[in-house]
Amino acid sequence: MAEFWEEAFKDKQEMWGFEPAQSAVITKDLFVANNVTNILIPGIGYGRNAKVFTDNGIRVTGIEISKTAIELAKNHFGNNLTIYHGSVTEMPFDSNKYSGIFCYALIHLLNKEERKKLLQDCYNQLSDKGYMIFTTISKKATIYNQGTFISKDRFEIFGGVNMFFYDQETIEEEFGAFGLVEITEVIESYPFHMIKCKKS
Length: 200
Description:
The chain contains 6 helices and 10 strands, in the order H-H-E-H-E-H-E-E-H-E-E-E-E-H-E-E. The chain is of the alpha/beta class. The strands form 2 sheets. Strands 3-2-1-4-5-10-9 form a 7-stranded mixed β-sheet, with helices on both faces. The protein has a 3-stranded antiparallel β-sheet with strand order 6-7-8, with no helix packed on it.
């Protein structure tokens, strides 16, 4: 997986531009309204979704598997971001507690055990009353049921990307033990679910 993302970033550099995803903007509003001051972004990439948070006075720490993406982020942010190099499957990278976690378009790239571990690891690093927001691809996406079948709702597409497609039932099943509060739909490049959890 690391090699795949290195190649992706080397070929396309800042492949998604620097406009934040719609769900990042929505999450920023939630975080600002709830006085979230420091956040963790697993799978931060080159920081496309970080700027909307740093611009609003929120300290950002990231985790990223691609060294190329980390270099691109350093070019844009200097030392304003802390980014740990490694896979989210190797969390935690520090012992900090974060008042917010934003995980964009990542969890659906993992297998079931990895998804479970990511949720547990994020929840463990969340402060009391903190929020974690995950965005994940929906079964309503046109690419659902395309490519090579791996297992129920999981397919290999785009020449090597393994993707799990969520619906309400699987969200409740996987996120229910981690303070699931709300599921909303948002259109990014495909129909996505925004999953809001709160640590009580």
